[in-house]
Design a protein that fits this description.
about 450 residues; alpha/beta; seven-stranded mixed beta sheet; five-stranded antiparallel beta sheet; 16 strands; about 15% strand
């Protein structure tokens, strides 16, 4: 793709910013304290503002532009579909909807062959939980601390990070537990084997005290995303699968962020040789070009609704434009070996490069991840592992991370910053040269974080 020629237009940028500040209500923000960047355009792994500043996007939007911005084949597919059939109600069989479902089902593990389409990941979680509750006749759902499952009613109650607190009404039948995280182990483990075994025992103990017959489902992000990209230790997800089978509990894997090539496999579950009963997806399914998510459903749960109506639906379920984007995206990923590229980049460039930065920077406590899905855990002290900023820090308490983020942007890198971490999550088709550019920018920005270590 030929690099886009950036023509600065500060006056247009000022108009965009003024309209935004006058009328747009932004998510997760104190409206009077934010200063959103006015974006003029994007292409591939980059975007730029109206002043002519160009940024390498190490966030993939919100970890969803898995094939980068403005891929011409996907743009063309959406344009073609708009000319053919721009929209149609979900109760009908539509060619592009059927094809999107077929392509997704071909890639999901096991017998997850029925696809219920939603508009995004949170709605996928809502419907997966509803299916599990109706299938089992039970109400409780177990979810992990250090998790994020979306911002709709049930999804936000299932979430294990502070964004839940303002909406936590305690009425959603949710019970939380500790999932494994060896670097900050809640189980005083010293090895991955210990962490896995103790986390599984803790989960089974939680089930025993909550009452196995009351629990409909356990939901886990296969590899937790926003909460810190904590790759589960060997045996853990297989152990959860065994526990679910033992007690008749539905096992839901949330692959909204980890799916569609992000970890170097079509789905992260493939790394762990585990098949859930339900799998949620969104984001990378069509690189976010048109909102789309869904639930992949196994044969047993799908059969529950063969004669019994499923009490759920969405006006835009399987929207033709979104499905056209999904078909084109999946075909692009297959034809251009995007999943293989993510694995290669992670193994040979991004992972080794991040680990090399950790050796030189006292602010980097741990590097973890796979594919193009990595986190740097930033600390005040490598020995004590004290986070660089306190949990859920804001204002002056968050100044070290704010300084790091500003330094990265000054280097032309747009970073993913959350609490005491920065995540390296570029597009799955990112090039080696682009990754090396990003690593150089991170190197400079981490020197700013180093100033806050002891």
């Amino acid at each position: 793709m030929t690099p886009h020629v950036i023509e600065p237009d500060p006056q247009a940028g000022a108009a965009v910013k003024a309209a935004d500040r006058a009328h747009v209500f932004h998510s997760w923000s104190a409206q009077g304290l934010i200063d959103p960047l006015a974006v003029a355009g994007a292409e591939g792994s980059y975007f730029w503002d109206y002043d002519g500043n160009r940024y390498l996007d190490f966030t993939s939007g919100l970890v969803y532009t898995n094939i980068g911005y403005q891929h011409p084949k996907v743009v063309a597919a959406v344009q073609e579909q708009a000319g053919k059939l721009a929209t149609f109600a979900p109760a009908f069989a539509v060619d592009v909807r059927s094809e999107a479902a077929r392509l997704i089902a071909e890639r999901t593990p096991g017998d997850l062959d029925k696809i219920f389409f939603t508009n995004g990941g949170a709605e996928a979680v809502e419907n997966a939980v509803r299916m599990a509750r109706l299938h089992t006749g039970r109400t409780k759902v177990l979810s992990a601390y250090r998790s994020y499952h979306g911002a709709t009613s049930t999804a936000i109650n299932l979430t294990g990070d502070p964004r839940r607190w303002a909406s936590d009404n305690g009425s959603a039948g949710v019970v939380r537990f500790w999932a494994p995280f060896l670097y900050r182990s809640p189980f005083y483990a010293t090895t991955e084997a210990e962490e896995s075994a103790r986390a599984l025992q803790h989960l089974e103990d939680t089930i025993a005290f909550e009452g196995p017959a009351t629990i409909a489902a356990i939901i886990l992000e296969t590899v937790p995303g926003t909460a810190g990209i904590m790759t589960p230790p060997p045996g853990y997800l297989a152990g959860v699968r065994e526990i679910c089978d033992k007690y008749g509990i539905v096992f839901i894997l949330d692959e909204v962020m980890a799916g569609f090539g992000r970890t170097g496999k079509w789905f992260a579950a493939e790394h762990f040789d585990v098949v859930p009963d339900l799998m949620t997806f969104a984001k990378g399914v069509n690189s976010g070009y048109v909102p789309l998510g869904g639930v992949a459903i196994n044969a047993e749960i799908a059969a529950t609704f063969d004669k019994r109506p499923y009490p759920g639906g969405l006006t835009y379920s399987g929207h033709p434009l979104a499905c056209a984007a999904a078909v084109a995206t999946i075909n692009v990923m297959a034809d251009e070996k995007v999943v293989e590229n993510a694995a290669h980049i992670g193994e040979t460039v991004l992972g080794p490069g991040l680990r090399e930065l950790a050796e030189r920077h006292p602010s980097v406590g741990e590097v973890r991840g796979m594919g193009v899905f990595w986190a740097l855990d930033l600390v005040k002290n490598k020995e004590t592992r004290e986070p660089l900023v306190p949990y859920n820090a804001a204002g002056e308490a968050n100044a070290p991370m704010a300084a790091f983020g500003a330094a990265a942007k000054k280097q032309g890198l747009w970073p993913f910053v959350n609490m005491n971490r920065t995540h390296a999550v570029p597009a799955c088709n990112v090039s080696e040269a682009e990754v090396k550019e990003g690593l150089a920018a991170l190197d400079a920005a981490l020197s700013v974080a180093d100033e806050h270590t002891v």
